Amino acid sequence: MDSGLVDANTVLLLAAWVQVSHVDGILDAHVALVLRGPFGIQRAGWAVARSGCWSMLKGGLILNTSGHVDLYFEANNTAIELWADSISVKPFSQEEWKFHQHQSTEKVRKAKVKIQAVDSQGQPLPNATVSLAQQRNNFPFGNAVSQHILSNKAYQDWFTSRFRYTVFENEMKWYTNEKIQGQQDYNVADAMLRLVQKHNIQVRGHNVFWNNPQNMPSWARYLSPAQLSSAASRRINSVMNRYLGQLIHWDVVNENVHFSFLEDMLGKNASAVYYNKANEIDSNAIPFLNDFNTIEHGFDGTSNPAKYLEKIRDLRSHGYSGPLGIGLQGHFVKPNLPYIRSSLDMLASAGLPIWITELDVANTTNQEVYLEEIIREVHAHPGVKGIMMWAPWGPKGCYRMCLTDNNFKNLATGNVVDRILKEWSHWGFSGITNENGLFETSLFHGDYEVEINHPEKQTYVSTAQKVKCLKNPLKPQYEGGIVVNPELNDGLNGWTILGDAKIENVVSSDGNNFIVASHRKGPYHGLSQEFQLEKDINYVVSGWLQVNHGDDANVAVIFKTQSGFQHAAWGIAKSGCWSMFKGGLTVNASGPAQLYFETNDPAVDIWVDSISVQPFSQEEWTSHQNQAIEKVRKSKVAIQVVDSQGKPLPNATISLIQGRANFPFGVAINKNILNNNAYQNWFFSRFKFTVFEDEMKWYSTEVSQGKIDYSTCDAMVNLCKSKGVSIRGQSILWDDQKFQPNWVPSLSPQQLSAAAGKRVDSVVTKYRGQVIHWDVMNENIHFNFFESKLGANASATYFRLTSDFDKKTPLFLNEYNTIEVPEDGVSSPANYLNKIKQLRAGGYGGSLGIGLEGHFAAPNQAYIRSGLDTMASARLPIWITEVDVRPNQNQAQVLDQVIKEVVAHPAVQGVIIWSAWKPTGCFRMCLTDNNFKNLPTGDVVDKIRVTMSHEGLVGTTNAEGYFETSLFHGDYKAIVAHPSMADSSFHHDLTVMPIAESDEKLSLSYKFTAA
After folding, report:
1. What Gene Ontology molecular function terms does this protein carry (predicted)?
2. Angle 469-471-473 (CA atoms, 0-180°, nearest 5)?
3. Which of these, 301, 305, 369, lies nearest to 334 by C-alpha position?
4. Distance between CA atoms of residues 343 and 46, nearest Å
């Protein structure tokens, strides 16, 4: 076929459909689309043509000279007929190509953002300067490193200041870890992993095996099949268990499209066997294929896109059905941009994540130009989820491409990378608000800090105002659990209409499927799915929400059961990006349950995707809880006792006494403690943290306006300080009108502002440095007394004022029902996070903590855990500030469940129980009777406290003089005794601290020498 005269530098996109005739014994053929012209002959696309159906071929080429071009199809087997149809040759100018690339980048990698600046009265602030500092880009872009980084500070500084993703050049490969059979050495890889983890850099695992025999350990090439199978089994178990949970991907069998060493030795299913094993060992690290020449050029028919997809089908046909990623190495000489784009289009049809894993460019005169062209082309493609460059530095040069010289000064390629990093991070980006206080722009997806300045207003920095946009939702948790069709990839299968509404399956422009409920006639009308739920099973519920237009919508996730309606989660659905909801429920009777979504405005269309309902038995739930406590609150400890000669001392007795626990666990007190020795003895023998029930609150310290009395509070502070007990400051102001001093509600706004300012000044100045937290505006999510009188930014104003008086003490919000009552949408986790954003938007940029009161009836453990997960996304300290349980026959059991659940969560940094004693009874829950004898609730607290302090723990050293155990973090005195010692015993102090997650299999080691 003559394509006619084509100009130089024209970009050609090529497409066709191909089929082969039926020939006995021949099912398919590899077909190349070939162009012939003044440039010679070039293969521009590939397909696997089959008999009986049509297959698409897609490719491209940039012409470097003008002239006539002939197009033809090529297949090696001349016995078949080759059929072609719907052939397309589409030319693009360089300008058109770059324009399409730019459009795709805007659509795929960025989102439109609108920021409004307002003054302290909530009025729009025009001509304010909005500066954006990106904290993390959502698109992974990294570079390989070599072992030379370990001993080269300049290399470390250059690398860690730029990248958050990496892969090791050779240090994790089999031929490095086991040069001599049976002698494994991971020291270098371990050190590199510790280094990058210290800088929060994520790592791809490269690789478990390499299917090229030249890149196997030299000794492995000559093993028998049985010996190789045994050695390979040891290898995959060794390396993957060693780095379990520390890597984001594993290249399991490297380059197994080009090479087949393992298949030749162990059978055609060898790769599938090892992918199954990899997924079994570490289900969180995605197993990847990884090969070269798939997108680099069309010359290599072995690994062209069609062959790559065939390898994926081969893996599936041999029994691997788990998660899978497509790794494309990207070792380029000169890029063929239309071939890259067409190849990525073909590979994206597999619906798997694609990473460019080893990007480099041959050292030619245009190296830096080609590098930039390639990065921009692959970054613009929606199928590509990450890019890793292959430019690890070595003193003798890099593999094919360096980014710096040996003094770590950028080369031209390094300048390209820095320029792109700055562009993607919006480095130095700022803008001016319009007359409505609005600044609108388009940002790359990620987390940002926003700084707003105005020449006529107080300048403030919002240190945690994060702009988060997800163009597409993440995959459903637990693969959807028991949800039918969780990703909506099967139309409306499993989903039905509830009430009067229309539901439909919609596909976004980039191929994401989701469900839409529209034409809704009421709040609950929309979509639903029915489940069979079982009694006493914990169900974790999650998914993603969006609305079609308008303001944010509070969406409730509800289950209609035989016993009524149970709220499981809340989400704030936005227009233009997807928001996650997470929650949970436990039902009190087995039976059918209908999941549905409810929001007040029926005019809003609800979009839902990636829905998950995952059941956990009580045994599984408790097991996860115990595992979390071991991981989060405890560390393994190995104590060795030796004699004066340094020899191990077996059968020595070690008694451990905890001096102070690292995890704050306390109980509220009130003024009754001041004159009651029994109360004091009971409390101070148990707790090192407290909060005052009422004595620091405004209605207690200023009963009459202007008459401030801190005498009771002072006495309680002095008593606690004398006993070494830390105090939470609760509260400066309370946003509920019912809990103001009696004289406050009748004040005018001006009078209230003055009185509240004096209150903040008085109490904060008096107790500055004597409390560990301040609850500044108590319960300001449920209530708005000060906002209704003083304006929408009242809370932010008093947080700023408190911070001005006390810059060192963390300031907390404090609210109820966030984790206690799923039905209370006012203070749901989503609305709590929204309140934090309002505080930041109102101008408070200082320290902030999350206080969750924890007044429970019957606990919903799945909702508690999911609520804490959601709150933890704010990355702020979380305290459970007022734990109690409503009186009922299971009060003690419920208290035990609640405490264990919150202590097990890694984001929770302290727990205070709300059970201050009164002779007339406690608020809702007492721990003792009036003689300070424990009630069942007190026994629960004592049991937990004793467990966390290891009270009475004694151990004996083994034959090597070691005693090994797992201890809660804190300070301990170890008393060591042995019959052979001159003195009957001696003691050592030790501190048990958290171990880095990467080292959690290690132990803290101590050696004590007996006199």
Report:
1. endo-1,4-beta-xylanase activity
2. 100
3. 369
4. 9
CATH number at residue 154: 3.20.20.80
Q: Are residues 144 and 261 in the same domain?
A: yes
**For 480-527, how does the pLDDT look when each residue is reduced to its tens digit (9 = 90+)?**
999 999 999 999 999 999 999 999 999 987 789 999 999 999 999 999
Return phi, psi of residue 267, to 5°. Answer: 115, 160
Residues 397 and 487 in one domain: no
Residue type, 181: Q
DSSP track, 695-743: TTSHHHH-SBTTB---HHHHHHHHHHHHTT-EEEEEEEEESSGGGS-TT
Q: Which of 171, 178, 296, 358 is an active site residue?
A: 358
Residue 287's beta-bridge partner residues?
250
Instruction: Give the three-class secondary structure for 264.
Output: helix
Tokens of 590: 């087995």
Residue in the block written with tokens 């803008």: 431
Size of the chain in residues: 1011
Which is it for the CA torsion 197, 203, 208, 212, positive or negative?
A: negative
Q: Indicate left, alpha or beta for 900 from its phi (over 0: left) and psi (-120 to 50: alpha).
A: alpha
Q: Do residues 492 and 606 share a domain?
A: yes
Please answer whether residues 311 and 327 qualify as being in contact, where contact means their C-beta atoms are separated by less than 8 angstroms.
no
Strands in 579-585's sheet, in edge-to-edge order, are 502-507, 513-518, 606-616, 538-547, 579-585
Give the pTM: 0.59
HEC string of 806-873? Answer: CCCCCEEEEECCCCCCCCCHHHCHHHHHHHHHHHHHCCCCCCCEEEECCEECCCCHHHHHHHHHHHHC
Let me know whether 692 and 770 are in one domain. Answer: yes
Total domain count for the chain?
Answer: 5
What's the pLDDT tens digit per position in 745-767?
Answer: 999 999 999 999 999 999 999 99
Domain range for 978 is: 627-652+957-1009
- Type of residue at 964: E
Is 152 in the same domain as 230?
A: yes
> Is 198 in the same domain as 319?
yes
Can you tell me the distance from the alpha carbon of 747 to that of 737, in angstroms, rounded to the nearest whole number? Answer: 12
Paired sense of beta strands 538-547 and 429-432, if any: unpaired
Q: How far apart are CA 334 and CA 322, in angstroms?
A: 35
Q: Write the single-letter amino acid at 672.
A: N
Alpha-carbon distance values, 890 to 887, 896, 936, 937 (Å) = 8, 10, 10, 10
Written as one letter, the residue type at 570 is W
